[in-house]
Amino acid sequence: MLIVALQTLRSRWAGFLGTFVALALGVALLTATGLVLNATVSAPARAPQRYAAVPTVVTGYDQLRVETTNGVDSQPLGVPSGVPAEVIDGVRRLDPGAVLDRTFYAQLVRDGRGGGARTGHPWPAAALTPYQLVDGTAPGDDGEIVAGTDAGVAVGASVPVLTVAGVRDYRVSGLVRPVPFESALFFSEAEAARISPRVDAVATSAGADAVTGVVGATGGRVLHGDGRREADPDRAADAEALVTVNAIVGTSAGIAGFVAIFVVASTFSFAVVQRRREFGLLRVVGLTPGQVRRMVYTEALAVGLVAAAAGVWLGRAGAAPLGRWMTGLGLAPPWFTVGPATWPMITAFAIGVLVALAGVAAASARAGRVRPVEALRDAAVEGRAMTPVRWLAGLLFLSGGLYLMLSAAATDPESVVGRKWYTTVPMLLLVAFGLLAPALVPPVVRLVGLPLRAMRGAGAMVVRQSALTAARRTASTAAPVMLAVGLTGSLLGATATIDAAKATERRERIAADFVVLPRDTPGLSETAVARVRAVPGADVLASRATTLYVVEGGETLLRQSAEAVDPGALGRVALPPVAAGSLAGLDDGAIAVNAEWDRAVGDEVAVWRADGSAATLRVVAVLDAGISGAGVYVTPANAPAGLTGAVYVKAHPGTDTGALRRALAAATDGLAASVTPMPEWAAATAAKNRQTTVRGLQAVLGVTLLYTAIAIVNTLLMAVAGRSRDLAVFRLSGATRAQALRTIAGESLVVVAVGVALAAGAAALNLAGMWLSVVRLVGFTSIAVPWAAVAAVAGICAVLALVASIMPAYFALVRRRAISAAAARE
Questions:
Q1: From the centroid of its chain, how far is CA 41?
Q2: Around Cβ 562, how many Cβ atoms within 10 Å?
Q3: Half-sphere exposure of residue 662, counting CA atoms within 13 Å on the CB side?
Q4: Backbone phi and psi for residue 254, each to the nearest 5 degrees, phi listed first
Q5: Going by fewer Cβ within 10 Å, which terminus of the chain is more open, N or C?
């Protein structure tokens, strides 16, 4: 069997070329993404940066640790606790020269918006990195600062600086050379203590053992050696970025694997259909069905081994550029690098071989069923296109997709917003439509072929009847088109529908006329919020994001997002959907939770605030979570001080909204804030979310389009190459070369139309199921269909189909005379 399989590959190498390329690219992507994933989980330990010039650092705790029935559970604190005063005194007794470091928000304001540095420190902490003073002097009094040379300010200049409290002018006394991990402003020690009373770290030259004895078991963390890295300011951001990289490359790898299996299975299935007579001849000369199946498996194994090896080589070469691309987009930390690793390459190689064998499984079974009499068949009409196994598999995948959709709509509508849901369900439906395609092709061809009925001439009839009589061939060649168009419509349509639902939810839950937002800053200062509240003729709701911690079921400590709001304005400016209770009772001892908390009105809930302080709050309202998952509210007393994310403003009846907008703009002038009408803000937010989501899907869809382009070209080249005799007969019947080419082009366009129709059916089911879930969450909303993207992908498929069919047909007609071609297979 090995010799026969290798001879087949040698003589039919063109038919296996598309499969080889698709497999090689799939393994290359799996190798590259595997190496990236390995780099995220085994990133080399970085040397300490912020406290590189000091041997020992004492910090407050950045973890909340709570005793549960399963032991001690922990979560990162939203606001790390400071170093206790008694610990500071003890360290200073050991080392009178110990430096107190405070880290707080501080940013220059330029032209009414934020710019440059976003971190403030006391000047003595500059020596801990160390920063180098390159111009001017250290801050001499509380009205001076030192900035980085990249801040765009000069020594002696007076500049406005925004902090949590508000804006104040400072004189630039000096400039330091910036460091890679942060851009900071330095204040006098007294001014830094006024802005941020909390001491975040104590840096000392004393030994770690002595400091540990002073700190004790509960006074803070003692960091030394490489452990000082845990106090670097970019550690949390880097960890979050690496999680994002994991999600992106993991999704891309999953989609790539699915597409590779789909393409390989489709290609091998079509190859078996074309080689029916060949298998019949092999049966005539004595091969058993098992030997035929083993021959097909051997062919797949040979292609898989070579393609997997080539893919591993390509993937290893492309892993480092992929990492640099992610770093350039800001998805990965600047220091992120991708190095070689053994297990991703071995895994990708093995997956490539398994994909080849899995893709040929159905085709080998069909090849084994070919009877010896098939060698004598020469009918253009295919036999039974659907086997019982294919019917069963197709209906199982279809049932699985429908079950996931309906069960989500009935019991867990919130799950539709998850990436796993809206990438898994389309795959199930597309596989189902691909398996059922031979049964669906005849009615679909009759539908898309209606315009051909109105056309005169034999060409239109031949195009239509060719697709009808060769349903299996049409299904195989239409499958890549269905995959490309279906994934584009399903993925982009799902994310667009979710974004539209979120926009609907925002409009329904916020009754404000204007929203005051930060301009290039992390948030609004206390001064800005106070000035907005002072504007007459409106209700004002300030919202500050915070974090709460709760023990779920006595077993697990969970971190929950919440909003700290003004309770008096909550029911007037924002309209959260209340399922039980009332927001009127929200006060410093109360909380409004969403249904996911599984709490009832009147329950007492033990929570921990963002800084780790404990509180017991009374549930006064239970809210519907909605599609965004929001719906937990507390008062500002239960949230540490910080920047306000947004201020919503609703005009009183009779108030001139134009005058109100001008008054708000005047009140916030120079405070790095902007006043935006609610419709504009909602539209801009939706567009921003859509852009972010689409950017994340571009890599996935790019891989899909590349694969399907290969599959379209490969299957159509195989189809046209196997129809040279049909072309010759068409010529002998009196058709010109141009008519023959037009017929081939028409058949290709019909195939593309069939693929688009099948994709539309799968995408419509997927989006309809998602819409049912979304309606349960936010009420009636529209289904967003990415018409432009779908049309573009369909157009690309049509162009590829025309090129891949007309060119080989033209060369076949030019190279061979009609009579010799017609007799070639006699």
A1: 19
A2: 25
A3: 4
A4: -65, -45
A5: C
Written as one string, the DSSP assignment of 428-445 is: HHHHHHHHHHHHHHHHHH
CA distance 188 to 171: 12
Query: What digits encode the pLDDT tens for the residues 446-472?
Result: 776 666 665 655 556 666 666 666 666
pLDDT digits (tens, 9 = 90+) for 247-282: 777 776 776 667 667 666 666 666 666 666 666 666
Q: Amino acid identity, residue 591? A: I
- Secondary structure class of 259 (helix, strand, coil): helix
The H-or-E segment that residue 480 falls in is: helix 471-509
Helices first, then strands: H and E counts in the chain: 23, 25
Q: What is the DSSP string of 718-772?
A: HHHHTTHHHHHHHHHTT--HHHHHHHHHHHHHHHHHHHHHHHHHHHHHHHHHHHH
Q: How many CB atoms lie within 10 A of CB 245?
A: 22
Hey, how many other C-beta atoms are within 10 angstroms of the C-beta on 340? 11
Which residues on neighbouring strands pair with residue 538, listed in sequence order? 651
In the structure encoding, which two tokens stand for residue 38, read together?
Answer: 């390995």
Query: Taking the CB of residue 91, how many other CB atoms lie within 10 A of it?
Result: 26
- The number of C-alpha atoms within 13 Å of 504 and in the hemisphere containing its C-beta is 19
Closest CA to 683 of 540, 502, 490, 544: 502
Mean pLDDT along residues 665-672: 89
What tokens appear for 180 in the block?
């890679």
Dist. CA 124–CA 99, nearest whole Å: 7
Between CA 22 and CA 256 the distance in angstroms is 10
Integer Cα distance of 474 and 98 in angstroms: 78
Q: Which of 30, 20, 31, 27 is nearest to 713 (CA)?
A: 20
Query: 422 near 499, Cβ under 8 Å?
Result: no
C-alpha 50/C-alpha 29 separation (Å) is: 37
Burial (CB count within 10 angstroms: exposed 0-12, middle 13-18, buried 19+), residue 233 = middle
DSSP 539-593: EEEEEEEEEEEEEETTTEEEEEEEEEE-HHHHHHHB---EEEE-GGG--TTEEEE
- Which among 127-136, 271-280, 453-462, 538-547 has the top mean pLDDT? 538-547
Instruction: Please list the residues that pair with 549 across neighbouring strands.
Output: 559, 608
